[in-house]
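Ticket closed. Logging final result for ABC transporter substrate-binding protein.
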Amino acid sequence: MYRKKLLAVVLIGALGVSACGANDQKPAGDAAKPEKGGTLRILSESRTLNLDPAKSQSLAITTLGLVHRRLTGWQNAVGQHALVVPDLADTGKTSDGGKTWTFVLQDGLKFNDGTPITSADVKWGVERSFAPAFGGGLGYHKDLLGGGDYQGPFEGKELDSIKTPDARTIVFTLTRPYGDWPWIASTPAFAPVPKGKGAEADYQEHAVASGPYQIAKYQKGVQVELSRNPNWEPAKDQVRAGLPDSVVFQLGQEASVVSQRLAADSGDDRFAFASSFVSPAQLAQLQQNPSAKSRVVTSKSGAVAYLALNTQKAPLNNVKVRQAFQYAVNKAAYQVASAGTAALAGDTASTLITQGIEGREQFDLYPSKPEGDPDKAKALLAEAGFPNGLDGLQLVLNKSNNQTDKGEAVQAALARANIKVTIRSLEADAFETETNLADNPTYDLILGSWQPDFPSANSNIQPLFASSEIGKGGYNTSRYSNPEVDKLIEQAQSTVDPAEAGKKWAAIDKRILQDSPVVPLIYTRNSFIHGSKVGNFFIADFPAYPNYLQVGISK
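Final structure:
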Protein backbone atom coordinates (compact mmCIF):
# COMPACT_ATOMS: atom_id res chain seq x y z
CA MET A 1 0.00 0.00 0.00
CA TYR A 2 1.52 3.30 -1.07
CA ARG A 3 -1.15 5.73 0.04
CA LYS A 4 -3.88 5.60 2.58
CA LYS A 5 -7.31 5.24 1.02
CA LEU A 6 -8.22 8.66 2.32
CA LEU A 7 -5.88 10.30 -0.13
CA ALA A 8 -7.32 8.32 -3.00
CA VAL A 9 -10.75 9.47 -1.94
CA VAL A 10 -9.60 13.08 -2.09
CA LEU A 11 -8.14 12.54 -5.54
CA ILE A 12 -11.25 10.80 -6.79
CA GLY A 13 -13.29 13.80 -5.75
CA ALA A 14 -10.94 16.42 -7.14
CA LEU A 15 -12.30 18.47 -10.04
CA GLY A 16 -9.71 19.83 -12.44
CA VAL A 17 -11.11 23.09 -13.77
CA SER A 18 -9.98 25.89 -16.04
CA ALA A 19 -11.44 29.32 -16.55
CA CYS A 20 -10.26 30.09 -20.05
CA GLY A 21 -8.44 26.97 -21.11
CA ALA A 22 -5.14 25.68 -19.82
CA ASN A 23 -3.11 27.80 -22.21
CA ASP A 24 -4.26 30.97 -20.47
CA GLN A 25 -2.24 30.08 -17.41
CA LYS A 26 0.17 32.82 -16.32
CA PRO A 27 3.79 31.70 -16.72
CA ALA A 28 5.99 31.79 -13.64
CA GLY A 29 6.96 35.31 -12.62
CA ASP A 30 4.80 36.96 -15.29
CA ALA A 31 2.60 38.74 -12.76
CA ALA A 32 3.61 40.17 -9.40
CA LYS A 33 7.36 39.93 -8.84
CA PRO A 34 8.02 38.56 -5.35
CA GLU A 35 10.63 40.03 -3.06
CA LYS A 36 12.19 38.85 0.16
CA GLY A 37 10.08 39.53 3.22
CA GLY A 38 6.45 39.71 4.28
CA THR A 39 3.99 37.14 5.55
CA LEU A 40 2.47 34.59 3.15
CA ARG A 41 -0.91 33.19 4.17
CA ILE A 42 -2.20 29.81 2.98
CA LEU A 43 -5.94 29.24 3.44
CA SER A 44 -6.66 25.55 3.97
CA GLU A 45 -9.93 23.66 4.05
CA SER A 46 -8.31 20.96 6.18
CA ARG A 47 -8.40 21.19 9.98
CA THR A 48 -5.03 19.43 10.29
CA LEU A 49 -1.53 20.17 9.06
CA ASN A 50 0.80 17.18 9.08
CA LEU A 51 4.41 18.26 9.49
CA ASP A 52 5.69 14.83 10.52
CA PRO A 53 7.68 13.44 7.56
CA ALA A 54 6.98 9.83 8.51
CA LYS A 55 3.23 10.40 8.41
CA SER A 56 3.11 12.76 5.43
CA GLN A 57 2.05 12.11 1.86
CA SER A 58 2.94 15.67 0.82
CA LEU A 59 4.31 16.28 -2.66
CA ALA A 60 7.90 17.50 -2.70
CA ILE A 61 6.86 21.04 -3.76
CA THR A 62 4.06 21.65 -1.26
CA THR A 63 3.56 22.09 2.50
CA LEU A 64 6.11 19.73 4.04
CA GLY A 65 8.90 21.12 1.86
CA LEU A 66 8.72 24.45 3.65
CA VAL A 67 9.90 22.84 6.90
CA HIS A 68 11.75 19.68 5.87
CA ARG A 69 14.35 19.06 3.20
CA ARG A 70 14.88 15.59 1.72
CA LEU A 71 17.82 13.83 0.10
CA THR A 72 16.65 14.92 -3.36
CA GLY A 73 14.14 17.48 -4.63
CA TRP A 74 12.10 18.44 -7.67
CA GLN A 75 12.75 21.22 -10.13
CA ASN A 76 9.62 22.02 -12.09
CA ALA A 77 8.59 24.84 -14.42
CA VAL A 78 5.87 25.61 -16.95
CA GLY A 79 6.57 23.87 -20.25
CA GLN A 80 9.19 21.50 -18.84
CA HIS A 81 9.26 18.00 -17.45
CA ALA A 82 10.05 17.86 -13.75
CA LEU A 83 13.65 16.95 -12.91
CA VAL A 84 15.13 15.26 -9.86
CA VAL A 85 17.79 17.58 -8.42
CA PRO A 86 20.05 17.69 -5.37
CA ASP A 87 18.56 18.79 -2.08
CA LEU A 88 20.34 17.74 1.13
CA ALA A 89 22.50 15.47 -0.98
CA ASP A 90 23.37 14.80 -4.59
CA THR A 91 20.96 12.77 -6.74
CA GLY A 92 22.64 9.46 -5.96
CA LYS A 93 24.98 7.14 -7.76
CA THR A 94 24.78 3.43 -8.48
CA SER A 95 27.57 1.16 -9.66
CA ASP A 96 25.63 -2.11 -9.85
CA GLY A 97 22.68 -1.33 -12.11
CA GLY A 98 20.39 0.28 -9.56
CA LYS A 99 20.52 -2.09 -6.59
CA THR A 100 22.92 -0.06 -4.44
CA TRP A 101 22.59 3.73 -4.23
CA THR A 102 25.05 6.09 -2.56
CA PHE A 103 24.21 9.69 -1.65
CA VAL A 104 26.62 12.31 -0.28
CA LEU A 105 25.21 15.17 1.80
CA GLN A 106 26.36 18.74 1.35
CA ASP A 107 28.88 19.92 3.90
CA GLY A 108 27.82 22.20 6.74
CA LEU A 109 24.06 21.60 6.76
CA LYS A 110 22.30 22.34 10.05
CA PHE A 111 18.92 21.85 11.72
CA ASN A 112 17.13 24.93 13.01
CA ASP A 113 18.59 24.35 16.50
CA GLY A 114 22.11 24.62 15.07
CA THR A 115 23.08 20.94 15.29
CA PRO A 116 24.66 19.38 12.17
CA ILE A 117 22.51 17.32 9.79
CA THR A 118 24.26 13.98 9.29
CA SER A 119 23.65 10.83 7.32
CA ALA A 120 22.68 9.14 10.60
CA ASP A 121 19.77 11.60 10.92
CA VAL A 122 18.52 10.71 7.45
CA LYS A 123 18.83 7.00 8.25
CA TRP A 124 16.93 7.54 11.50
CA GLY A 125 14.19 9.41 9.65
CA VAL A 126 13.75 6.60 7.14
CA GLU A 127 13.78 3.93 9.86
CA ARG A 128 11.29 5.92 11.92
CA SER A 129 8.79 5.66 9.03
CA PHE A 130 8.60 1.89 9.66
CA ALA A 131 7.29 2.35 13.21
CA PRO A 132 3.56 1.48 13.39
CA ALA A 133 2.86 4.60 15.44
CA PHE A 134 4.13 6.75 12.58
CA GLY A 135 2.42 5.04 9.67
CA GLY A 136 0.31 6.64 6.98
CA GLY A 137 3.04 8.22 4.90
CA LEU A 138 4.20 7.20 1.44
CA GLY A 139 5.81 3.77 1.59
CA TYR A 140 7.46 3.15 -1.77
CA HIS A 141 10.78 2.57 0.01
CA LYS A 142 9.67 -0.05 2.53
CA ASP A 143 9.67 -3.27 0.50
CA LEU A 144 12.71 -2.13 -1.46
CA LEU A 145 14.67 -1.78 1.79
CA GLY A 146 13.61 -5.25 2.92
CA GLY A 147 11.60 -3.91 5.84
CA GLY A 148 9.62 -7.11 6.39
CA ASP A 149 8.65 -7.18 10.06
CA TYR A 150 10.87 -4.23 10.98
CA GLN A 151 9.09 -2.00 13.51
CA GLY A 152 11.30 1.07 13.51
CA PRO A 153 14.37 2.21 15.47
CA PHE A 154 12.85 2.93 18.88
CA GLU A 155 13.63 -0.55 20.21
CA GLY A 156 17.27 -0.20 19.26
CA LYS A 157 17.09 -2.12 15.97
CA GLU A 158 18.45 -0.81 12.68
CA LEU A 159 17.87 -1.60 9.03
CA ASP A 160 20.90 -3.41 7.67
CA SER A 161 20.01 -2.17 4.20
CA ILE A 162 20.99 1.41 5.16
CA LYS A 163 24.63 2.15 5.95
CA THR A 164 26.28 5.41 7.01
CA PRO A 165 30.05 4.95 6.59
CA ASP A 166 30.62 8.58 7.57
CA ALA A 167 28.64 11.66 8.60
CA ARG A 168 27.94 12.73 5.01
CA THR A 169 27.48 9.41 3.19
CA ILE A 170 24.43 7.18 3.17
CA VAL A 171 24.21 3.92 1.22
CA PHE A 172 20.99 2.04 0.42
CA THR A 173 21.12 -1.61 -0.63
CA LEU A 174 17.80 -2.52 -2.20
CA THR A 175 16.16 -5.91 -2.55
CA ARG A 176 16.26 -5.47 -6.33
CA PRO A 177 17.45 -2.91 -8.89
CA TYR A 178 15.25 0.18 -8.95
CA GLY A 179 15.98 3.00 -11.37
CA ASP A 180 13.62 5.52 -9.76
CA TRP A 181 15.35 5.45 -6.36
CA PRO A 182 16.49 9.10 -6.73
CA TRP A 183 12.80 10.01 -7.03
CA ILE A 184 11.95 7.85 -4.01
CA ALA A 185 14.59 9.77 -2.06
CA SER A 186 12.46 12.91 -2.60
CA THR A 187 9.48 11.45 -0.70
CA PRO A 188 8.76 12.65 2.86
CA ALA A 189 10.40 9.78 4.77
CA PHE A 190 13.80 10.89 3.46
CA ALA A 191 13.71 14.08 5.51
CA PRO A 192 16.19 14.02 8.40
CA VAL A 193 15.00 13.58 11.99
CA PRO A 194 17.69 14.05 14.67
CA LYS A 195 18.82 10.59 15.70
CA GLY A 196 17.08 9.50 18.88
CA LYS A 197 14.27 12.04 18.59
CA GLY A 198 10.70 11.92 17.27
CA ALA A 199 9.23 9.20 19.50
CA GLU A 200 6.42 11.43 20.73
CA ALA A 201 3.01 11.26 19.01
CA ASP A 202 2.80 15.04 18.58
CA TYR A 203 6.19 15.43 16.87
CA GLN A 204 4.46 17.15 13.95
CA GLU A 205 3.68 20.10 16.25
CA HIS A 206 7.33 20.83 17.07
CA ALA A 207 9.32 18.95 14.43
CA VAL A 208 12.97 19.89 14.07
CA ALA A 209 13.34 21.80 10.80
CA SER A 210 15.87 21.48 7.99
CA GLY A 211 14.06 23.73 5.48
CA PRO A 212 13.75 27.51 5.33
CA TYR A 213 11.03 27.63 8.00
CA GLN A 214 10.56 26.32 11.53
CA ILE A 215 7.36 25.82 13.50
CA ALA A 216 6.73 28.94 15.59
CA LYS A 217 3.17 28.24 16.73
CA TYR A 218 0.89 25.23 16.28
CA GLN A 219 -2.81 25.71 17.16
CA LYS A 220 -4.68 22.50 16.39
CA GLY A 221 -7.49 23.02 13.92
CA VAL A 222 -6.94 26.77 13.86
CA GLN A 223 -3.59 28.02 12.65
CA VAL A 224 0.06 27.07 12.17
CA GLU A 225 2.71 29.78 12.00
CA LEU A 226 6.12 29.21 10.46
CA SER A 227 9.05 31.56 11.02
CA ARG A 228 12.47 31.69 9.40
CA ASN A 229 14.93 28.94 10.23
CA PRO A 230 18.06 30.91 11.20
CA ASN A 231 20.33 28.05 10.15
CA TRP A 232 18.96 27.53 6.64
CA GLU A 233 21.39 28.70 3.97
CA PRO A 234 19.82 29.75 0.64
CA ALA A 235 23.07 29.11 -1.21
CA LYS A 236 22.85 25.44 -0.31
CA ASP A 237 19.23 24.99 -1.44
CA GLN A 238 18.35 25.13 -5.13
CA VAL A 239 14.80 23.83 -4.53
CA ARG A 240 13.38 26.54 -2.20
CA ALA A 241 13.36 30.30 -2.64
CA GLY A 242 12.50 30.94 1.03
CA LEU A 243 11.24 34.44 0.24
CA PRO A 244 8.58 35.25 2.89
CA ASP A 245 9.71 36.04 6.42
CA SER A 246 6.85 33.92 7.73
CA VAL A 247 4.15 31.58 6.46
CA VAL A 248 0.78 31.26 8.18
CA PHE A 249 -1.60 28.38 7.51
CA GLN A 250 -5.19 29.22 8.41
CA LEU A 251 -7.01 25.90 8.93
CA GLY A 252 -10.64 24.84 8.67
CA GLN A 253 -11.54 27.44 6.04
CA GLU A 254 -14.69 26.93 3.96
CA ALA A 255 -13.55 26.62 0.33
CA SER A 256 -16.40 28.67 -1.17
CA VAL A 257 -15.87 31.44 1.38
CA VAL A 258 -12.13 31.43 0.69
CA SER A 259 -12.75 31.99 -3.03
CA GLN A 260 -15.04 34.92 -2.24
CA ARG A 261 -12.47 36.42 0.13
CA LEU A 262 -9.63 36.10 -2.35
CA ALA A 263 -11.79 37.53 -5.12
CA ALA A 264 -12.51 40.56 -2.93
CA ASP A 265 -8.75 40.91 -2.39
CA SER A 266 -8.73 43.04 0.75
CA GLY A 267 -6.62 43.19 3.89
CA ASP A 268 -4.43 40.15 4.63
CA ASP A 269 -6.15 38.18 1.87
CA ARG A 270 -4.09 40.11 -0.66
CA PHE A 271 -1.10 38.13 0.66
CA ALA A 272 -2.86 34.73 0.59
CA PHE A 273 -3.67 31.81 -1.66
CA ALA A 274 -6.08 28.90 -1.33
CA SER A 275 -4.76 25.37 -1.04
CA SER A 276 -8.10 23.97 -2.32
CA PHE A 277 -9.24 23.82 -5.94
CA VAL A 278 -11.71 26.40 -7.16
CA SER A 279 -15.00 24.59 -7.84
CA PRO A 280 -16.71 24.91 -11.27
CA ALA A 281 -19.56 26.96 -9.78
CA GLN A 282 -17.13 29.33 -8.08
CA LEU A 283 -15.03 29.55 -11.20
CA ALA A 284 -18.02 30.66 -13.24
CA GLN A 285 -18.63 33.45 -10.73
CA LEU A 286 -15.01 34.56 -10.83
CA GLN A 287 -15.24 35.09 -14.59
CA GLN A 288 -17.48 38.09 -13.91
CA ASN A 289 -14.72 39.74 -11.86
CA PRO A 290 -11.79 40.80 -14.10
CA SER A 291 -9.42 41.23 -11.16
CA ALA A 292 -10.23 37.82 -9.68
CA LYS A 293 -10.16 36.16 -13.09
CA SER A 294 -6.61 37.42 -13.63
CA ARG A 295 -5.55 35.77 -10.36
CA VAL A 296 -6.83 32.28 -11.19
CA VAL A 297 -4.04 29.93 -12.24
CA THR A 298 -4.90 26.67 -13.94
CA SER A 299 -2.98 23.46 -14.58
CA LYS A 300 -2.53 22.22 -18.11
CA SER A 301 -3.56 18.79 -16.94
CA GLY A 302 -3.72 16.68 -13.80
CA ALA A 303 -4.96 13.34 -12.57
CA VAL A 304 -6.34 10.75 -14.97
CA ALA A 305 -9.97 9.98 -14.16
CA TYR A 306 -11.03 6.48 -15.13
CA LEU A 307 -13.72 3.81 -14.91
CA ALA A 308 -12.27 0.66 -13.29
CA LEU A 309 -13.73 -2.70 -14.38
CA ASN A 310 -13.53 -5.60 -11.93
CA THR A 311 -11.60 -8.02 -14.14
CA GLN A 312 -12.04 -10.90 -11.68
CA LYS A 313 -15.83 -10.93 -11.87
CA ALA A 314 -17.95 -12.29 -14.73
CA PRO A 315 -18.77 -11.06 -17.31
CA LEU A 316 -16.00 -8.48 -16.91
CA ASN A 317 -13.41 -11.27 -16.87
CA ASN A 318 -13.98 -11.43 -20.66
CA VAL A 319 -11.56 -9.08 -22.44
CA LYS A 320 -14.00 -8.46 -25.34
CA VAL A 321 -16.63 -7.37 -22.86
CA ARG A 322 -14.15 -4.96 -21.24
CA GLN A 323 -13.10 -3.59 -24.62
CA ALA A 324 -16.75 -2.84 -25.36
CA PHE A 325 -16.73 -0.39 -22.46
CA GLN A 326 -14.02 1.65 -24.21
CA TYR A 327 -16.58 2.51 -26.90
CA ALA A 328 -19.68 2.56 -24.71
CA VAL A 329 -18.58 5.43 -22.47
CA ASN A 330 -19.40 9.02 -23.38
CA LYS A 331 -16.35 11.01 -22.37
CA ALA A 332 -17.95 14.27 -23.48
CA ALA A 333 -20.86 13.68 -21.09
CA TYR A 334 -18.40 12.86 -18.33
CA GLN A 335 -16.65 16.18 -18.94
CA VAL A 336 -19.92 18.07 -18.56
CA ALA A 337 -20.85 16.10 -15.43
CA SER A 338 -17.42 16.83 -13.96
CA ALA A 339 -17.20 20.57 -14.48
CA GLY A 340 -19.99 21.89 -16.68
CA THR A 341 -18.05 22.07 -19.95
CA ALA A 342 -15.27 20.19 -21.71
CA ALA A 343 -12.96 23.21 -21.41
CA LEU A 344 -13.41 23.30 -17.67
CA ALA A 345 -13.09 19.57 -17.07
CA GLY A 346 -9.92 18.76 -19.02
CA ASP A 347 -9.06 16.81 -22.15
CA THR A 348 -10.47 13.38 -22.86
CA ALA A 349 -8.02 10.62 -21.94
CA SER A 350 -6.81 7.58 -23.85
CA THR A 351 -3.64 6.63 -21.94
CA LEU A 352 -2.86 5.56 -18.39
CA ILE A 353 0.27 7.69 -18.02
CA THR A 354 -0.71 11.25 -17.18
CA GLN A 355 0.31 14.28 -19.18
CA GLY A 356 3.49 16.05 -18.03
CA ILE A 357 5.37 12.80 -17.33
CA GLU A 358 8.64 12.24 -19.20
CA GLY A 359 8.46 9.31 -21.62
CA ARG A 360 4.68 9.44 -21.99
CA GLU A 361 3.42 8.61 -25.47
CA GLN A 362 0.07 9.78 -26.82
CA PHE A 363 -1.96 6.96 -28.42
CA ASP A 364 -5.53 5.68 -28.64
CA LEU A 365 -6.15 1.96 -29.03
CA TYR A 366 -9.92 2.52 -29.16
CA PRO A 367 -10.47 5.61 -31.36
CA SER A 368 -13.97 7.05 -31.48
CA LYS A 369 -15.75 10.36 -31.04
CA PRO A 370 -15.74 11.84 -27.52
CA GLU A 371 -19.39 10.78 -27.35
CA GLY A 372 -18.37 7.15 -27.84
CA ASP A 373 -19.57 4.55 -30.33
CA PRO A 374 -22.47 2.48 -28.90
CA ASP A 375 -22.81 0.40 -32.07
CA LYS A 376 -19.15 -0.66 -31.89
CA ALA A 377 -19.67 -1.55 -28.23
CA LYS A 378 -22.73 -3.66 -29.06
CA ALA A 379 -20.76 -5.49 -31.77
CA LEU A 380 -17.97 -6.37 -29.35
CA LEU A 381 -20.50 -7.60 -26.79
CA ALA A 382 -22.07 -9.80 -29.45
CA GLU A 383 -18.64 -11.24 -30.31
CA ALA A 384 -18.19 -11.97 -26.62
CA GLY A 385 -21.47 -13.91 -26.52
CA PHE A 386 -23.77 -11.18 -25.22
CA PRO A 387 -25.87 -10.12 -28.24
CA ASN A 388 -28.55 -8.69 -25.94
CA GLY A 389 -26.12 -6.67 -23.87
CA LEU A 390 -25.41 -6.85 -20.15
CA ASP A 391 -27.68 -6.49 -17.15
CA GLY A 392 -27.24 -6.38 -13.38
CA LEU A 393 -23.89 -4.59 -13.13
CA GLN A 394 -23.18 -2.37 -10.11
CA LEU A 395 -21.31 0.93 -10.23
CA VAL A 396 -20.12 1.70 -6.68
CA LEU A 397 -19.57 5.35 -5.76
CA ASN A 398 -18.22 7.12 -2.72
CA LYS A 399 -20.90 9.44 -1.34
CA SER A 400 -18.40 11.84 0.19
CA ASN A 401 -16.88 12.56 -3.21
CA ASN A 402 -20.02 14.01 -4.77
CA GLN A 403 -19.74 11.45 -7.54
CA THR A 404 -23.46 11.19 -8.34
CA ASP A 405 -23.53 13.36 -11.46
CA LYS A 406 -20.50 11.66 -12.94
CA GLY A 407 -21.85 8.20 -12.08
CA GLU A 408 -25.18 8.98 -13.70
CA ALA A 409 -23.42 10.22 -16.85
CA VAL A 410 -21.55 6.91 -17.06
CA GLN A 411 -24.76 4.97 -16.39
CA ALA A 412 -26.65 6.77 -19.18
CA ALA A 413 -23.84 6.27 -21.67
CA LEU A 414 -23.57 2.55 -20.98
CA ALA A 415 -27.33 2.16 -21.39
CA ARG A 416 -26.98 3.25 -25.05
CA ALA A 417 -24.88 0.11 -25.61
CA ASN A 418 -27.41 -2.12 -23.79
CA ILE A 419 -25.27 -2.24 -20.65
CA LYS A 420 -27.62 -1.79 -17.71
CA VAL A 421 -25.97 -0.53 -14.55
CA THR A 422 -27.32 0.30 -11.12
CA ILE A 423 -25.56 2.81 -8.90
CA ARG A 424 -24.77 2.03 -5.28
CA SER A 425 -23.46 4.95 -3.22
CA LEU A 426 -21.51 4.18 -0.04
CA GLU A 427 -20.22 6.22 2.85
CA ALA A 428 -16.45 6.70 2.82
CA ASP A 429 -15.68 3.93 5.33
CA ALA A 430 -17.92 1.41 3.58
CA PHE A 431 -16.41 2.33 0.23
CA GLU A 432 -12.93 1.78 1.61
CA THR A 433 -13.92 -1.59 3.06
CA GLU A 434 -15.45 -2.67 -0.24
CA THR A 435 -12.43 -1.80 -2.34
CA ASN A 436 -9.98 -3.26 0.19
CA LEU A 437 -11.46 -6.75 0.18
CA ALA A 438 -8.81 -9.30 -0.71
CA ASP A 439 -11.35 -11.70 -2.21
CA ASN A 440 -14.78 -11.60 -3.85
CA PRO A 441 -15.72 -7.91 -3.79
CA THR A 442 -19.28 -7.30 -4.92
CA TYR A 443 -18.66 -4.26 -7.11
CA ASP A 444 -18.41 -4.41 -10.90
CA LEU A 445 -17.42 -0.84 -11.69
CA ILE A 446 -15.75 2.00 -9.77
CA LEU A 447 -14.91 5.58 -10.71
CA GLY A 448 -11.35 6.50 -9.79
CA SER A 449 -8.72 9.18 -10.30
CA TRP A 450 -4.95 9.15 -9.92
CA GLN A 451 -2.06 11.58 -9.97
CA PRO A 452 1.40 10.09 -9.36
CA ASP A 453 3.32 10.72 -6.14
CA PHE A 454 6.47 11.52 -8.10
CA PRO A 455 7.14 12.47 -11.75
CA SER A 456 7.63 9.01 -13.21
CA ALA A 457 5.36 6.70 -15.19
CA ASN A 458 6.33 4.09 -12.60
CA SER A 459 4.09 5.92 -10.12
CA ASN A 460 1.25 5.92 -12.67
CA ILE A 461 1.38 2.25 -13.58
CA GLN A 462 2.63 0.14 -10.67
CA PRO A 463 0.18 1.23 -7.94
CA LEU A 464 -2.85 0.76 -10.20
CA PHE A 465 -1.99 -2.36 -12.19
CA ALA A 466 0.55 -4.56 -10.40
CA SER A 467 -0.94 -7.77 -9.01
CA SER A 468 0.60 -6.98 -5.62
CA GLU A 469 -1.72 -3.97 -5.28
CA ILE A 470 -5.00 -5.91 -5.30
CA GLY A 471 -6.94 -5.49 -2.04
CA LYS A 472 -5.37 -4.97 1.39
CA GLY A 473 -5.17 -1.22 0.94
CA GLY A 474 -3.79 -1.26 -2.61
CA TYR A 475 -5.17 0.78 -5.48
CA ASN A 476 -5.58 -1.89 -8.13
CA THR A 477 -9.39 -1.56 -8.00
CA SER A 478 -9.76 -3.23 -11.41
CA ARG A 479 -8.15 -6.24 -9.71
CA TYR A 480 -6.05 -6.67 -12.82
CA SER A 481 -3.53 -9.48 -12.61
CA ASN A 482 -1.31 -10.32 -15.55
CA PRO A 483 2.03 -12.11 -14.88
CA GLU A 484 3.42 -10.75 -18.14
CA VAL A 485 2.66 -7.18 -17.09
CA ASP A 486 4.04 -7.78 -13.58
CA LYS A 487 7.30 -8.91 -15.16
CA LEU A 488 7.38 -5.91 -17.52
CA ILE A 489 6.77 -3.56 -14.58
CA GLU A 490 9.68 -5.05 -12.66
CA GLN A 491 11.92 -4.77 -15.73
CA ALA A 492 11.00 -1.11 -16.21
CA GLN A 493 11.53 -0.37 -12.52
CA SER A 494 14.98 -1.92 -12.75
CA THR A 495 16.01 0.38 -15.61
CA VAL A 496 18.28 3.20 -14.47
CA ASP A 497 18.40 5.26 -17.68
CA PRO A 498 15.27 7.50 -17.68
CA ALA A 499 14.89 7.57 -21.48
CA GLU A 500 15.09 3.80 -21.75
CA ALA A 501 12.73 3.38 -18.81
CA GLY A 502 10.27 5.83 -20.39
CA LYS A 503 10.05 3.70 -23.53
CA LYS A 504 9.35 0.62 -21.44
CA TRP A 505 6.62 2.35 -19.44
CA ALA A 506 4.95 3.60 -22.63
CA ALA A 507 4.93 0.04 -23.98
CA ILE A 508 3.42 -1.21 -20.70
CA ASP A 509 0.73 1.48 -20.94
CA LYS A 510 -0.32 0.07 -24.32
CA ARG A 511 -0.05 -3.53 -23.16
CA ILE A 512 -2.35 -2.94 -20.19
CA LEU A 513 -4.92 -1.10 -22.28
CA GLN A 514 -5.05 -4.03 -24.69
CA ASP A 515 -6.59 -5.91 -21.75
CA SER A 516 -8.87 -2.93 -20.96
CA PRO A 517 -8.98 -3.17 -17.14
CA VAL A 518 -9.95 0.53 -16.98
CA VAL A 519 -11.44 3.11 -19.32
CA PRO A 520 -9.46 6.38 -19.24
CA LEU A 521 -11.99 9.23 -19.16
CA ILE A 522 -10.36 12.66 -18.81
CA TYR A 523 -7.16 14.31 -17.62
CA THR A 524 -8.55 16.62 -14.96
CA ARG A 525 -7.53 20.24 -14.48
CA ASN A 526 -6.99 22.13 -11.23
CA SER A 527 -7.49 25.86 -10.72
CA PHE A 528 -6.30 27.92 -7.74
CA ILE A 529 -6.84 31.57 -6.82
CA HIS A 530 -4.41 33.90 -5.05
CA GLY A 531 -4.33 37.44 -3.70
CA SER A 532 -2.90 40.35 -5.68
CA LYS A 533 0.30 40.58 -3.59
CA VAL A 534 1.26 36.92 -4.10
CA GLY A 535 4.02 36.52 -6.68
CA ASN A 536 5.58 33.67 -8.63
CA PHE A 537 2.46 31.57 -8.16
CA PHE A 538 2.57 28.98 -10.94
CA ILE A 539 1.56 25.43 -11.78
CA ALA A 540 4.12 23.52 -13.81
CA ASP A 541 3.39 20.68 -16.22
CA PHE A 542 3.65 18.30 -13.24
CA PRO A 543 2.19 18.15 -10.68
CA ALA A 544 -1.17 19.96 -10.98
CA TYR A 545 -0.49 21.99 -7.83
CA PRO A 546 1.28 25.30 -7.21
CA ASN A 547 4.90 25.19 -6.14
CA TYR A 548 4.70 26.50 -2.56
CA LEU A 549 8.49 26.64 -2.33
CA GLN A 550 8.84 29.40 -4.93
CA VAL A 551 5.99 31.70 -3.90
CA GLY A 552 6.73 35.11 -2.42
CA ILE A 553 5.12 38.44 -1.54
CA SER A 554 5.32 41.50 -3.78
CA LYS A 555 5.58 44.99 -2.32
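Residues 1-30 have pLDDT under 50 and may be disordered. No further action required.
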